[in-house]
Amino acid sequence: MACSKKYIFFHSYQLFFIMKQLLSFFILLFLFVSFSFAGNILVGSKSYPVDTLAHFKVGPGTQYTALQLIDAAKPLRVFFLEVDAKNPYIQMKTVLGKDSTITTERPSDMAKRKTKEGAVYFAGTNGDFFITAGQVGLPVAGCMVDGEIAVVPNSRPVVAFDRNTMPFIGTKTFSGKVSFGVNSFPVSNVNTTRNTNQLILYNSLNGHFTHTNTSGTEVLVQLIDTKWDVNKILKAKVLNVVSGKGNMVIPAGSAVLSGHGTAQTFLNTLKVDDEVDINLEISVGTSEKPLLSDMVGGDRFILKDGLVTDNDWVDPNPRTAIGYSADKSKIYFCVVDGRSGISVGISTKQLADIMKSAGAYTALNVDGGGSSCMYVKEFNVMNDGSDGSERAVANGMFAVSSAPADLIMSEIKAYENSIELPKFGVFKPKFLGYNQYGTLLNTDVQGVTLSCPAELGYINDLGELVASGTQNGVLTATSNGIQTTVNIILQDEAQIAFRLDSVLIDNLFEYPIEIQSVIGQNTMKVLPSALNWEVRKLDICVVENGTLKGLSNGKTWVVGNLGTFKDSIQVQVEIPTTGTMVQNDFSTPLLWTLTAQTNWNATLSSANLPAGWQHGCAINYQYQSNRAPSVKLAYTMPMYSLPDTLKIEFNTGAIELSKLIVSLKANNQTQFSSTEFFNIPKNIDTQVSIAINKLIPNSLDIASFPVWFDYMTFYIKAASQIVNTNYTLAIKEISLCYAGLTVSSYTPAVLSTLKVYPNPVVGNEMRISLKNAAPQLIRLQIYNVSGQLVRTENLGIQQAGDVILPMHGLTTGTYFLKIYQNDKIETVKIVVK
């Protein structure tokens, strides 16, 4: 039976790569692969070798990078976003959890909810620390959203952006006032509890109400200006004035001025339709007063003017940082994972070193731990949060694209700028597609044609590069006239291993032995024909050009050699003697476990079999009342060889069934899957069929075999049963089908609508004989034994009769022909000689 093999490497860091692949490969959505990285990263006093896991553009002016910092004791997984602040289509935007200061939301949900035409929130991270008891979700430092203050900045540092995407990091101070005529009154705060003699401004980021008491006056105002801004005098119109009531409703886009004591006296001078001036100022530590638009807070500077600060949070934790370059033209987001075997976490001084290595000049530590999250629109969450799932947080900061909608792809790029391949490695890069503005349109561009110089290798029939050459080279990729290149570096002694420890085959299924190599984050195939092969028992199987073929029943070892590499695979051959074979004839009832209601006195024996049966067994019971009567037979057993179809033959006698459930699983699955049958007749021999390719997710993968049988349960219609009456349900056999057409439905039927011949195919064509009564739309697909599509033929509307299918270009071996007839799908195993 086929089993997965763990890779064994000679160097400790290579062993670590395999661990990281098994633990976090899906975190990076299997698309992220490594390319060469020159140099190390200095973190504190330690120099880390670096494996670049991913580096590609994710939006206008924005690059994503994922790194593994390699150390056996303290590995680190690091994620970056580098945003071009000068790109005309980019703005930095804060999002509050559900647009309120007192609630939380996952960063990915924030971005998806806020995205609309002309404003695509395509990448970003979590933001500020927040209150976790009482006012849960309230950011602890300053927060602004599109010019509106959500939380007034305090002694904690913040990162803020003006309306031209200019960044500012530091401690900010707030002041404000409301003026009417020659009179004015200071604004004490925004969206917080109103105290004695204070004037508080409440906006819709506070929620739907002010949540104030009745001891004051509240004035509802609406901007005359087009948008809220700080460091600018805004004009607003009074819509309503209410005293002694409190908790005023805050309509979207409006604000409430709420005053007590002396502030109330000032507000009582206002009446409906008056115009007031509102001036809210936030200093950035200089004489400048920019039109700040968006802000999130943190807890400390970690990098200031190129220098790492001394205020270290020494505990190793997951971390998030936001910073910018010396000229403020680049914005940097960074997330470092922690609390796991692939990334242990870091201190804030170490985080500063990592930010500095990326190009940051000034940076701020924001919320970390389980809150640390990096989001990219097309891939969702990029890092592996220490909570095990994405945490809902107070706010997030995002790069937002205003680029015009354009679905025309004008650029393709490989995920990998440079790929390391083992000698005879087989690989096809994945490509990203972008429009003219740098918007990511396609994460897996299809129809890309590859070409390469002969010194590097060749492109096989599946469009993959086979690195059979002797020199490094450049792989050229072309799609609809768009070209890109990838550097290929050949590694003579890359570590390789067989994908499977063992395999089950027959004499028809030809298995190209799967050999894989792991370099960094890349897993790739190695050409099996490049290896020298040794079969321990030559009468059991043979290996020709790396393809395994069964000869006779038995078990043996097959050994492959390539350079210094050597590995082995155990091969078991099971050859069906006929097209249909009996898997189990129930002649040994003791092998089966019978489950029925305890007061039925149910037995399993050869007694009371239907007339003419030469084998089988019968479930005999005396019915007693039950709300959901059923009988179950269980026996976990492997099915012989590589069947196309499993059939069960039985006779229910006088018993009426509501349904039958049969449970099977593939060898490479952990869970069994069940199939249900209905409308089962009584008093006649009945056969149900299960198409293996319908039940198993990938029946073309040799690792799926053997298929395991688990149980079958017969559900009985209670209304058809009579108390104290004896009943018999007989099961004759479980049989397996190996040749001809695969049954494509869960009903017992022989497919007679078509015939494929000759099979095996000799020459360059085969014929499909259609017996359909009415014209049908016919489409064909041919897959190799690895499950890869190698040919598609659209035959259009066809009458009954023979259709010729050209077979030129197919190498010798076993294939699967999938035939689409209108909405019906059937699969035929074919052999090309």
Alpha-beta classification:
mainly beta
Structural shape: globular
- At the first level of CATH, what is the class of the largest domain? Mainly Beta
Strand order of the largest sheet: 2-3-4-5-24-23-25-21-22
Average pLDDT level: 89
Point out poorly predicted stretches.
5-38, 740-752
CATH topology assignment of the largest domain:
Jelly Rolls
- Measured between the Cα atoms of the first and last residue, the distance is 27 Å
Main sheet: strands, sense, barrel: 9 strands, antiparallel
Whole-number total of structural domains: 6
The total beta strand count reads 67
CATH superfamily of the largest domain: Galactose-binding domain-like
Helix share of residues? under 10%
How would you describe the overall organization of this protein?
The model is unreliable at 5-38 and 740-752 (pLDDT under 50). The longest helix is centred in the first third of the chain and has 13 residues, at 12-24. A hairpin with a 2-residue loop joins strand 66 and strand 67 (824-832). Helix content is 5%, strand content 46%. It has 6 domains: 10-84 and 307-378, no CATH class; 141-294, no CATH class; 411-491, Immunoglobulins (Immunoglobulin-like), CATH 2.60.40; 496-573, Immunoglobulin-like; 580-742, Galactose-binding domain-like (Jelly Rolls, Sandwich); 754-832, Sandwich (Immunoglobulin-like), CATH 2.60.40. The protein has a 9-stranded antiparallel β-sheet with strand order 2-3-4-5-24-23-25-21-22. It is mainly beta.
